[in-house]
Every structure is written in C-alpha cells, then in structure tokens.
Input
Amino acid sequence: MAQVEPGGSPPQLGFGPVLRRRRAGAGLTQEELARRTGISARAIGDMERGRVARPQARTLRALAAALATDEAELRNLLPRNGNDPGQARTGWGGLLCEPPPETADLAGREQETAALLAVLDGHSSARSAPVVAVTGAPGVGKSTFLVHAGHRLAGRFPGGCFFLSMRRDGRRSPEHALGTVLRALGVATDQLPAGADARSSLYRSLLRDRKVLLLLDDVVDEAQVRPLLPSNPDCLVLLAGARGLAGLESVVRIPLDVLTPAHSVRLLAGIVGTERVRREPSASLALADLCGHLPLALRIAGNRLAGRPRWRVADLLRLLGDGRRRLAALTAGDLRVRTTFEAPYRECGELARAVFRRLALAEEPEITVRRAAALAEVDVDSAERGLEELVDAGLLESAAGTGRYVLRELLRLFAEERLRAEEPGREPSCAARPRPFTAPRTSRPAQPVQCPVAEPRC
Output
C-alpha cells in the first residue's frame, strides 16, 4: 500500500499503472484485453510500462469499453501540457498528428474511394504495409481526398490514424517527421534517438504489432517518406503529392482528375446552396467551365458567391471572363489558385520553368515536343526533359497515345503571368489568348438546362 504523509493525500498513479491495475481487476491478461479491444498485446504492454504515455482518443475509448470504466477518468491520467517536460520543450502540446476535420461537400470521388477500398481489402497476402499514392495536378483536391479517406478508414485501424504534412518550411526532413510521429505514438522527447535511421528503426518496432493508418500530405519526394514506411502489413500508408513518386517500390497510385461538369456544379451547390444554383443553371455550368472544373477554383468561386448573397452567378462570371484577371479573382481569404501553382513551379529546374513559360506562346492547348523545343529555343531532347519534369510536377499532362502534352487553361494563364514577369517583352499572340467571355443573358429565359445537383447528369 502507498504511504501517505500526515495531512497529505495518496499519490496519484499514472496512466500505465492504473491500466495494469484495471486489467488485473477485471481478471484479464494482456492478450485477452487485446482481443476485446482490437489493440495489440504489445501496445497494451507498452502503455502499462509507460513507454507510450499518450494513447489516441480511440484507444482510450476501446480500453474504457472493455474494462467497463470511465473514458474521462482514463484521459485525466494522461500527462498535462503544463506538467509534461517533453511537451514544454517542444512546444507541440496536445495530441499530435490528429487528422484535420473532413470537408462536408466532397463531390465526385466515388470511383477513387472504391479503388482505395479495393486496395485495402486485397492486400491480405502482402509482406509489408500497403502504400497508396494520391496524385494529380495542383488544386485537384489531393489533400481533401486524403483527409476524407482517413476519416472513412480510421475505424479499421485501432492503433491510430496519424496525419502529417511533409511540406513544412519548404520540405520537412525525415528525421523531423519521424520525431513528430514518435511523439504522437507516446515516445517522450528525451527518449527520441538522434538521426533518421535510429528513429526509423524505433518507429517500425513500435508499429510491429499495431494496426495504424498513416496519412502523409504534401509529399515532395521519395526520400521524405521511405523512413516512414512501416513493415507491418496490417498498417496502411496514404500519400498525397503532385509528383508521381516513381522511385517508390510497390506503390498503388490513384490519380485524381478535374471534376466532371455535373460534379463541378454539385460542388458549387454544396457551397452556395442548391436553390441558388438551380436559379441559374446555365451560368453555373459556365462558371464551372471558367474554373476549369478544378476543385480548388470551384471552392474559391463558391466561397466568393456565398460571401455575397446578393450576387448572381453571372456577376462572378463577368469577373472571371478576363483571362488576365482570372487568377487574381480566384482568391478567397487564404485560398488562392495562383499560390497553389507557384509551389510546384518553384520546385522545377530552370529548364522546365523556361519550357513552361514558353508554352504560353502556343496557339493550342495540345503541343508536340518539337513545337515546345521551338518555342523554348532548346533542342528536342532538352525540351522533352523539361516537359516530362512538368508532367511529374503536375503542371502539364501527357496526352494518351498521341505523343502530345496538354496544358490546362488555368495553368496556361499562370504560364502567361510567369512569362510576362520573368521575360519582359515577350507576349502571347492574340491567337493564343483566350477569347473574352460573354456571360449568359439573363434578361429572358434561356433554353431549359438540366441542373446536375440532384442527379449527376448535365
């Protein structure tokens, strides 16, 4: 029995000793508690020994249910921010790596979600954790889909769901990323080993018997994520990045494309309201076209309309009709289409950036390697290297089976901006510029247009 000083109170047991006492009081072994909760016996042992000091909320709920105790009581035994020296030194505090809230108005990703579930259901014979890379152009909604998938799948992973952005101050180092995840797994700051290799070894050992979902957003390159790939096949890693990460082995890639017109209007309706979109179906479809059916641009346009309830959709169309002003108009608070394009552009090499700028001089959205070489004033081999780097960065698309490349309209407008800013005196020809947009007339009713809000058709 614990000794109590006169006038004092019994010392409070920590989370680990209380968990061990509750388990023993229920007459359960660690293995039996593991079967009841879906948490591995190794993880339970680590918690009882104090090696994992801050289990995730879903772990606490599972333990409380299995032991018929109060979850709040267990949570109160966790180290507080002000009393945890490790947290005080790092300044992180709270629970680390919690996924962001899910976006409620996600539209048009049913096929991609089904493909992800098929990967998860079909990996039973794998010897290592399956890795799924979500790829696509800037602004296509990779982060939104990643978070959506995390919330959809979290219940399958009792060991926890951890979210980490790999783009911190440009590029988060593997050592720093591993330190953050290890802290989220309960490793105290003063017990973190130095160096990425040692941290990766500890990380993999902690996940050996845990079923964990790891969400890595804004991945820059393969070297960032290799040390974070678990060896336990019961885990799952979801990556999101503009680049295809071709250097990673045994990766399933799920490409995200722009939305269909029907799903684009459905997304707008989810932001501004179904009735508002139904009043102007033609203008809503035209707005989706000017946004290039890019989810980020559509969200910004929807947010602008939602913030101006007296505007008609046609009012915003007139703002976006001028190609030179369109990227500036596609801004809502801290959401900016231009900023999303700038990050991958800066990460490209000098040759690829030069090729990208000169693509603004092309008359058509599809271009051959030879035409790109002529515009960029480089040889064909150099042009092809630059074009392929742009494809890897998500700034350009490769047309299937044609040997041509495709530059989407919003990205072409961005290429024009970079050309004017970095190569003064060069200007796209009139033929290469978009024709001024004319908003649909609203003075008389237009021909009926099926609004794809309730039904995905247009």
In short: The radius of gyration is 26 Å. Residues 1-12, 80-94, 431-458 have pLDDT under 50 and may be disordered. The chain has 22 helices and ten strands.
